[in-house]
Design brief:
Blueprint lengths: L7 E6 L2 H12 L4 E3 L3 E6 L2 E7 L14 E5 L2 H10 L7 E2 L2 E2 L4 E2 L5 E6 L5 E6 L6
Parallel strand pairs: 1-4, 5-10
Antiparallel strand pairs: 2-3, 3-4, 6-7, 8-9, 9-10
């Protein structure tokens, strides 16, 4: 292998049980608990790790600006995000980030934010801008 491959991304959280329930509901998959206050969600070859950092006396820090998920049924994911009150409160290029719309670059997407400030973007498969 000559090209590096991303295989896991960590989101820091303050409550592993709450984070596990949040991501199980949002992603529609249960994931798997691992030692060390962490829970893994396999997202198509890249693992989303939720890590409770409070056991080490730390406070969670938000991860990258946005993590992008390709999904087949964007409306179902949007409905779950709405039920979790996780729709993003900001705008993207002057458009509401929380709405499922076609973005200027052609992706049909919406943005969400978890309770610890991690930003998520869900993009309809088949419209990915790469």
């Amino acid at each position: 292998m000559t090209t590096p491959k991303i295989f896991r991304m960590a989101f820091e959280v303050a409550d592993l049980e709450e984070a596990t329930a949040f991501y199980t509901d949002l992603l529609g998959i249960s994931g798997q608990r691992h030692p060390g206050a962490r829970h893994y969600f396999d997202c198509g070859g890249v693992i989303l790790e939720v890590l409770d950092v409070t056991e080490g006396g730390m406070r969670p820090r938000p991860g990258p600006k946005s993590v992008y998920f390709a999904v087949d049924d964007i409306d179902a994911v949007h409905a779950r995000a709405e039920a979790l009150k996780a729709l993003a409160p900001f705008q993207v290029h002057g458009q509401p980030a929380s709405e499922v719309i076609e973005r200027p670059w052609g992706e049909r997407s919406f943005y969400a934010t978890d309770p610890w400030g991690n930003e998520l973007c869900f993009v309809k498969e088949g419209t990915l801008y790469t």
